[in-house]
Amino acid sequence: MSRAVRSPVRGRKLYTWSTAIAVAALVGAAGCGGSTSSSSSSSSASAPHKGGTLTILASAAFGTADPAQNYTLEEWQLLIDTHDGLVQFKRVGGTAGTKIVPDLATSIPQPTNGGKTYTFQIRKGIKFSNGQVMKPSDFVTTFERQFTVPGPTSFYSGIVGADKCSTKGCDLSQGVVANDSAYTLTINLTAPDPEFLDKLALPFAYVVPASTSKKLTGNNVPPGTGPYMWQSYNPNSEAVLVRNPYFKQWSAAAQPNGYPDKIVEKYGQTISDEVTAVENGQADEVWDGDVIPADRLNELNSPKYAKQVHVNPLTADWYFALNTRTPPFNNLKARQAINYAADRSAYVKIAGGPSLAVPTCQILPPNFPGYKPYCPYTAGSDTTKWTGPDLAKAKQLVQQSGTAGMKVVVNSATDETDKALAQQMVSDLNKIGYKASTQLLNASIQYPFIQNSNNSSKWQVAWSAWYQDYPAPSDFLNVLLGCGNIHPHSDASPNIAAFCDQSIQAQMTKADNLGLTDPATANNLWAQVDHEVTDQAPWVDLFNPKQIDFLSARVQGYQWNPQWYILIDQMWLK
Amino acid sequence: MAAILEQADVTTDLRPEIAGRNPWLLAGRRLWHNRIAMASLVLFLLIVLLCLLAPLYANHIAHTNPFVNNLNGTTIVDGKRVPLMEQGGGLLKLGETPIGPTWDVHHYFLGADQLGRDVMARLLYGGRS
Predict the structure, then answer these.
(1) Cα–Cα distances in Å, from A526 out to A191, A515, B19, B62?
(2) Can you tell me the distance from the alpha carbon of A100 to that of A17, in angstroms, rounded to the nearest whole number?
């Protein structure tokens, strides 16, 4: 998942499940050990009940609402309540929330054909929010749209026929075979994929009616099968979810019915004003991807808000992508220079201090498969952790690169914290001899702007953040820095830095394949890839964040799911 | 008759002290004798002067660069070196709070902002805009 925010299995199924659960256990233990995290329900003063309107405040909307393309935490937290896929992450808080359970499929199938074929039995009697009956053939359109809209296609590029798909057209009739009589769906892959069930649990794969346009639907969200439906979405004002009249719960584990009658997400206020509104009970949630400004954090330490504030560790990165297409950062020494110069403790302070952020130099977050601590861009000789900047080394590298004095535009969002991060980056760049300035965009357009190569001449450094899609190293390394995720002229090109190293790419492919048969060796290879990519410095990685959820006093039933974070529709109002 | 004559007197009569005098001089004289106005003028000119001297203050008195983040900086308060930013308290210890006014012109007179910058220096520079 991109933000918050802003990112995010058989024979190998066993590997992926056990790995996922092990990772989640480690993450949960790390979080619970600090005694400030909350991964399960807080004590409630009232029994669970339906009713009311839950209001979320977000400083900006999430761009296009088409589920085939939208890659933001912000929309995903709503899409899981309005749409369903074949499988789902269990909709509970805590480590149990990383388990894959059947959703629109009646069960999780064993793959056949050497791990390349999955045959799902589809549930009958489920309707979309427009009254149409959901059929297996609806999934064919859903997957084809991934390539025609397009979305981040790499997740499903292993489906037979996908290699011939493009924005001009897509025929997956050999790869996604629907039988509306037997109510089965068979997916054929070109090669076994240990992460395939995780990928099916992402909103890109949530079913939409077969009649849905193969082109981008913009702000119109196609009907889904979840307990809520989209009444409206205006990125300039609000999104409104109301109950889907055709929903009947078929699996509490995958898609439980929701408690609020209506969910409203409002846009446009500053995050500081959002905090004030929630303190005053005028709204129920500061959207958890909005980083609460540093000058508002101290008041949340008050015992008055003890039951309203929840802090959880995240497998996520906040970073600045370095534009490798243009000078100065098409030069390795220049990229390494800013990595040495970056004062990561200052960025941590901007994020709210050590309680909310841990400095990092590398791509993979702690407690992740393949993570081995590594930070070459630090003062001192210990390269397992960052201790301080090394300005002398940084200046030396700038001189060696021949890029001293160049103008550098630092792109970020207008939110208070994102702006402060950009200002710090300007400060770090100027210290080593560049002439840096900021370029601030509204959060709703900043992420697509920096992804699209049409804009690549306008910035040299761009802030972004990534939260896991699912617990797999490729979800960071390949999705964000793989050659296959540079999509020219597209708003969905998550390799923002446009970094492509064929030698490293070959190792990623090898590690991916090894994951099927030898997970331990695969993880070691992923660790090596992580370190090599870090050495190539396509990013200035800043810190691994923790998440604050700040809720109004009337909200009950808070749960934090490691995949989806706050479970919005599982909260009820006193 | 008397009322008309009185009105004629008002429109044609000039007191000796203002007759023939430059109106600007007259205004200046009136201002000079208005103590509250004079005090305000002096204060205003003092503020203008201080703002013009912002670079002098920042570089030679406060020794800060108000345009550069200084989140890890320190200053002297009551003879002790203290960090400009302090981690929040309570159970959660969220946030970083900048130092408040020290009332010491050499050490963050009005405290620091969220990025560790000297508020007094920034205020003076801001007055130059």
Answers:
(1) 20, 10, 95, 50
(2) 8
Phi, psi of B57 (to 5 degrees): -60, -50
Contacts with A272 (C-beta within 8 Å, 6 or more apart), sequence order = A293, A295, A296, A416
Taking alpha carbons only, the member of A284, A292, A296, A355 closest to residue A37 is A355
CA A376 to chain B, closest CA, distance in angstroms equals 21
Instruction: Give the pLDDT confidence of A273-321 residue by residue, as tens digits.
Output: 999 999 999 999 999 989 888 889 989 999 999 999 999 989 999 999 9
Provide the CB-side half-sphere exposure for A134 (13 A, CA): 30
The rounded distance, in Å, linking the Cα atoms of A144 and A169 is 8
B90 contact residues in A (CB cutoff 8 A): 301-303
Within a 10 A sphere around the Cβ of A429, how many other Cβ atoms? 28
Instruction: Print the SS3 string covering A54-113.
Output: EEEEECCCCCCCCCCCCCCHHHHHHHHHHCCCCEEECCCCCHHHHCEEECCECCCCCCEC
CA dihedral A256, A257, A259, A264 (to 10 degrees): 100
In angstroms, rounded to a whole number, what is the distance separating the alpha carbons of residues A275 and A287?
10
Question: Domain spans of chain B?
Answer: 16-52, 54-127
Total number of residues shown for chain B: 129
Is the pLDDT assigned to residue A25 strictly greater than 90?
no
- C-alpha–C-alpha distance, residues A339 and A167, integer Å: 37
**Distance (Å, whole) CA A384 – CA A367:** 15
Q: Give the whole-angstrom CA distance, residue A354 versus residue A484.
A: 35
CB contact under 8 A, A345 and B71: yes
Neighbour tally for A3: CB within 10 Å: 25
* A422 touching chain B per CB within 8 A: no
Q: Are strands A228-234 and A184-188 parallel, antiparallel or unpaired?
A: unpaired
d(CA A256, CA A425): 44
Count CA atoms within 13 Å of residue A415 on its CB side: 32
Q: Which of residues 26-65 of A touch B (CB under 8 A)?
A: 35-36
Quick check: A500 and A493 in contact, CB under 8 A? no
A150 cis-preceded (ω within 30 degrees of 0): yes
CA A526, CA A248: separation in Å to the nearest integer? 43
Task: Return the residue of B nearest to A300 by Cα.
Answer: B94
pLDDT at A6 over 60: no
CB A463 within 8 A of CB A413: yes
**Helix (H, G, I), strand (E, B), or coil: what is residue A384?**
coil
User: Where does residue B51 rank: exposed (0-12), middle (13-18), buried (19+ CB within 10 A)?
Assistant: middle
Identify the CA nearest to A286 among candidates A466, A75, A441, A59.
A59
Question: Quick one: CA dihedral A356, A357, A363, A365, positive or negative?
Answer: negative
> Do β-strands A435-441 and A407-413 pair in parallel, antiparallel, or remain unpaired?
parallel
pLDDT at site A7: 32
Q: What does the block give as tokens for A15?
A: 């590997």
Confidence (pLDDT) at A515? 87
For each of the domains in chain A, give its residue range(s) and CATH number, in order of start: 38-223+548-573 (3.40.190.10), 316-547 (3.10.105.10)
Residue A307's closest CA among A287, A278, A282?
A: A278
Token reading at A12: 């190998």
The token duo for A252 is 């509490």
Cross-chain residue pair B69–A346, CB shorter than 8 Å: yes
pLDDT at site B127: 93
| ipTM for the complex shown | 0.74
From B66, which residue of chain A is nearest by alpha-carbon distance? A427
What is the percentage of chain A residues whose pLDDT exceeds 70?
92
Overall average pLDDT of the A482-510 stretch: 95
